[in-house]
Amino acid sequence: MKRMILAMCVCVMMSFSASAVFAETDAYHVGCVFSITGKASWLGEPERNTVQMIVKQINDAGGINGRQLVLHIEDDQGDNTRAVNAIKKLIKKDKVCAIIGPSLSGTSLAGVPVVTQEQIPMISCASAAKITTPAEERKWIFKTAPNDSDAARNIFAHMNTHNIHKVGIMTDSTGFGAAGREQLKAIAVDYKIEIVADETYNPTDTDMTAPLINIRNSGAQAIINWSIVPAQSIVPKNMKDLKMTIPLYQSHGFANIKYAEAAGDAAEGCIFPAGRIMAVDTLPDDQPQKKVLEAYKKAYESAFKDHVSTFGGHAYDALWITADALKKVGDDPAKLRDEFEKTKFVGIGGVFEFSATDHCGLDKDDFSIMTVKDGKFVVLKE
Amino acid sequence: MNPAEANLVDLVQFFFMGIQRGCIYAMVAMGFNMIYNATGIINFAQGEFVVLGGLMMVSLTMALHLPIVLAFILTVLFVVVVGVLMERLTINPVKQPTVLRLIIITIAVSIITKGAAMMFWGKGSHYMNHFSSAEPLDFHGATILPQTLWIMGILLLVVAAYVFFFNFTMTGKCMRACSINRDAARLAGIDDRKMVMLSFALSAGIGAVAGIIITPVIQMDYTRGAMLGLKGFGAAVLGGLGNSTGAVAAGVLLGVLEALGAGYISSHYMDAIALVILLFVLFIRPSGIFGSSEAMRLKEF
Questions:
Q1: What is the CATH number of the domain that holds B49?
Q2: What are the distances in angstroms from CA A261 to CA A308, B31, B54?
Q3: Which residue of A has its CA nearest to B227?
Q4: pLDDT tens profile A138-150
């Protein structure tokens, strides 16, 4: 009798899994790799929330071409090895036709060789320009986060108008910080700005006194802090503790209101480039993105009771670009890739125009220069 | 200000930075020593006590708006209860308590605590108001936060209470007796298992205090425990495991050296500097700067 029950259980289970497989072969499978937990969870969490929200919306409306969209979401914990393993698993086991993510510059760069070899298109949500350049070597890689090089150009342009010629830079030692450091050093020359101090710190550091003092001693007229981790909110605090009054520029990695909240009063007045989602209310009505931005902000904030951030926006753009391409060409990875190159899309990050030579699709003007005023992000008016 | 003076100001500034970190390392190291003396093991959940203290204090003061003194007491009590539960539920029931087994258990507890803290407090950094003003005080051109003075003062109080407890109270003396020779202490009628529980309670309490006083300066999140624990462990080893006055001195020393290294060498390698110093000391004096090499030879671990 016992054996009978066991056999019946096995049969039932097999029929369940068989029917599940049957249903899912008919669906479109897309993989996602985000840093949902770990040090970069402030990026990965809104990204995951956003894709879950959109996929529900798509499937409730009948799916794509009458087929369901199935997302396979993996958490890389901000770790390069885990990201590579997750990408391999998505390609080999889940047979996905495209990958969205990873969240970080480091993990994205780690994933580049894998997807190139397997010939699966990947839309990264990270910012380093070298993820998609040079385009001929990055045939399968796209990204929806704006280039760090363009963020740097915005900062330097702002400095030019404010008569700042000598800056001290401090960057965190993550992939984001290291890539930003390279860009800052390369681009400063174009704007006739001299980097007089170059400091790096670890994402786990809790005290920025030492790099700040070195910058103070270098005679810098302003500081650029380039970081994506919570440690960056300690910089304005420590500047206040040291009574340093020179302007502080932050990177676009600062564009999460939680970072400003964590720094409190000290964050007031710091200047950073960011996507327009951070200040939707201050945009004119004829701005092409305004409707999309408002809709996303409203949907996200009512669904998750949390502030919207640019990072979730990168995932929003990546998933909708993928969904639009799936609708047109189906789930053949090579066809999808070709379709991505032709995409024009008004999204959260800006107005995307991909091409064979540009796999990022955004430019310098998709940033706005912002500041913190009364604990809120506002567009800086000149 | 001439260059020589400016250099001096920098040095003083780095020194303040180092003292602030060092006081925390010292308190974590004292926590390590207390449990080491009672059980002979390293409690790898020590850093988690600090995190729990910081996060609980944030909740009580920032969300529930309790006055600081009341919140301080409640937080310490809460973490002490966690420490006691840890000992009662995971250390005490072990049938054959070998050193290795107990250490692995503490690692497990640390992982579980970290996960629970993440579930409860979320993944973000939490910040709280300074105990008094957050305006830095001027000290001949260098600046020092009032909170740093609080940290130094509270460390001194904790050390004073520690010295008093272990030298002038019966319970403290019993604990010392247990750490010197457990079998002899048992023969003299001391309940050694109770002493182990007490050591976990005290060690959790000191960890909580460290977490409470540092949170206004560094912000607290659930991942901080590992690094704080590691640095505190470094200080404990540097001072000679089990030697608490040594731990205090070594903790402050480690903090200052780290700050000087960050200032004059590179802040990128700050964590590495502390660990290199630790390795260096262990090569030359395995018993730590303040430890006795003779005692070291007799220890199991």
A1: 1.10.3470
A2: 14, 32, 18
A3: A204
A4: 999 999 999 999 9
